[in-house]
Amino acid sequence: MTDSPVAVIDLGSNSIKVLVAARRPDGTLGALHQSTIEARISSGIGGALPRLSDAGMARGLQAVQALLAEAAPFAPARTVIVATSAVRDAANGPEFRERIRAATSHAVRLLSGDEEASLIGAGLTCDPALAALRDFTVFDLGGGSLECLNFRARKLDKEVSLQLGCVRMMEQFAPSPSAAFTAAAAAALAAHVSDQLTGSGFPLALPPGGAAIGTGGTFSTARAILAARAGIPFDQSHPVLRLADLRTLEFVGQLALAERRTLPGLPTGRADIFPVALVTVLTLAGLGGYTEFRHSTYNLRWGVAAELLRAGSE
Description:
The protein has helices spanning 54-71, 85-89, 93-104, 113-124, 166-173, 183-200, 217-230, 243-247, 257-260, 274-288, 300-313, and strands at residues 6-11, 15-23, 29-38, 78-83, 108-110, 136-141, 146-152, 155-162, 211-215, 240-242, 292-295. Helix 1 (54-71) packs parallel to helix 3 and helix 6 packs across helix 10. The protein has 11 helices and 11 strands. A 6-stranded mixed beta sheet has the order 8-7-6-9-11-10, sandwiched between helices. Strands 3-2-1-4-5 form a 5-stranded mixed beta sheet, with helices on both faces. A hairpin with a 2-residue loop joins strand 7 and strand 8. The protein is of the alpha/beta class. It has 2 domains: 6-114, ATPase, nucleotide binding domain (Nucleotidyltransferase, domain 5, 2-Layer Sandwich), CATH 3.30.420; 129-295, Nucleotidyltransferase, domain 5 (2-Layer Sandwich), CATH 3.30.420.150. The longest helix is centred in the N-terminal third of the chain and has 18 residues, at 54-71. The mean pLDDT is 92.
């Protein structure tokens, strides 16, 4: 690594993640450390007046402190904490940001929907597995929002942020997450997702040679379940998630929450939201005519790290 490292903590709606990254001699970004804590700060954002719960804020603060401690041994030149949909939309989001600042001395950078989408795109262009792609459409499904991005000639051409995050949708369409996700609820959710996407005007059709890219916890979880069913480690699993394989996971929604929590590859902290998230992904595939998604782990925090390292070299 050639630059002093930087650390990025991403206050996601469902999980809080840290990335410590530095520039390699060839100019690409490399990870020195990555870690995730499932904190679910977004409980309660599905209502008409979204608010973060006291318990969610306490979990979030505890996670941030733990991840700062993990990053400290790498002596990052800069550490940035960013917040997205859950904090952005919550009436008491400023209170949560102040709690973090008071406890850690780190201010929280609140990203707009456009900034979030742009930084996700910047992160994806750091993925060496996508280096040959020129035209692609990206979907980052989080707990609070769905970020949609079109890249043409590797430049961001169109971006839309929609309030279709899986925690938000669970609270609206599956108010009893401990029970099975009914076919009627799945149909209602699919109709809502379809309406929102169609109404947004976001162009879903891929150009010739284009690819659909999936990032965020939902795609990682689907890949992890499929890898576990195949008896292989996640890191050795194929990053291409075929629609036919994703459809084999629809049975998860037919299980009660207690049964879902026993499924290999499905994190217990995501067992309640996964059926809702899967319906959203399958609806996306249907609207866009996609037969597969290419999974990438290079999203928001990589984009922020690239921004920090670029600023540090100027």
